């Protein structure tokens, strides 16, 4: 068989097919065989040449997602002050449904201690550093007044990515909204008035979408169980 002259194209196809299945079937219910079947014309060896497992595929998708956020033109938009850049980044993030769906699929993998530790390092450093850059810019331009720039950046990074996620802290939609209000008060008390009422609603709605995704995956799994005769009688 001829050597693949465009491995980056094959890799992209694998990632796109896997993401489609993760979003429709759920990460937990998708297998490497499913991804192979979705692609149709690739051999098992071709997929495993690029990715050792579906976990490594999800890691690659999350890495791409993080790089897109870091490369956002909002960070270099001179028409916005530091505070409004932070607000715009968060608003864009929660409005980006592929991003939110990917986060929702990735969260259950954090039950693995090694994966959780690596993820925490990323949010504690890369994401917190990005927020710190914008908080420092806000202090310089006068839109933010805080004596705790590093602490605020770390708190915002960790709480928006873990505490608000119903995967870690289950709650109803009303409870999620109350949680976001509590986060807004924390930010205000630190001198970083990040969450307006409108942005708070957007944030709560974005995380509430995880609830419907979890329910849809559970329903699909139950249906498949019934179809193959394995459901309890």
TrEMBL record:
InterPro entries membership: Homeodomain-like_sf, HTH-type_TetR-like_transc_reg, HTH_TetR, Tet_transcr_reg_TetR-rel_C_sf
DNA-binding region per UniProt: 32-51
Identify the residues that the record assigns to the HTH tetR-type domain, covering every copy: 8-69
Gene Ontology molecular-function annotations: DNA-binding transcription factor activity; transcription cis-regulatory region binding
Q: Which UniProt keywords apply?
A: DNA-binding, Repressor, Transcription, Transcription regulation
On whether Transcription regulation is a keyword of this UniProt record, the answer is yes
Q: Which domain of life is it from?
A: Bacteria
- What protein am I looking at? AcrR family transcriptional regulator
The organism encoding this protein is: Bifidobacterium lemurum
């Amino acid at each position: 068989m001829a050597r693949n002259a465009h491995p980056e194209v094959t890799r992209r196809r694998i990632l796109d097919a896997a993401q489609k299945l993760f979003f429709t079937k759920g990460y937990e219910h998708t297998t490497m065989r499913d991804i192979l079947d979705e692609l149709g014309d690739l051999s098992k060896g071709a997929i495993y040449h690029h990715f050792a497992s579906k976990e490594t595929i999800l890691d690659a998708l999350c890495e791409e997602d993080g790089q897109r956020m870091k490369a956002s033109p909002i960070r270099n938009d001179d028409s916005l002050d530091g505070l409004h850049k932070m607000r715009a980044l968060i608003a864009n993030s929660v409005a980006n449904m592929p991003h939110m769906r990917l986060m929702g699929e990735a969260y259950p993998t954090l039950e693995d201690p090694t994966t959780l530790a690596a993820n925490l390092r990323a949010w504690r450093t890369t994401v917190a550093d990005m927020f710190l850059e914008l908080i420092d810019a806000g202090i310089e331009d006068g839109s933010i007044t805080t004596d705790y720039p590093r602490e605020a950046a770390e708190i915002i990074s960790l709480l928006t990515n873990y505490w608000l996620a119903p995967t870690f802290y289950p709650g109803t939609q009303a409870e999620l909204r109350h949680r976001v209000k509590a986060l807004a008060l924390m930010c205000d008390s630190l001198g970083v008035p990040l969450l307006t009422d409108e942005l708070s609603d957007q944030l709560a709605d974005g995380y509430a979408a995880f609830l419907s995704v979890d329910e849809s995956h559970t329903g699909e799994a139950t249906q498949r169980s019934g179809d193959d005769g394995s459901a309890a009688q």
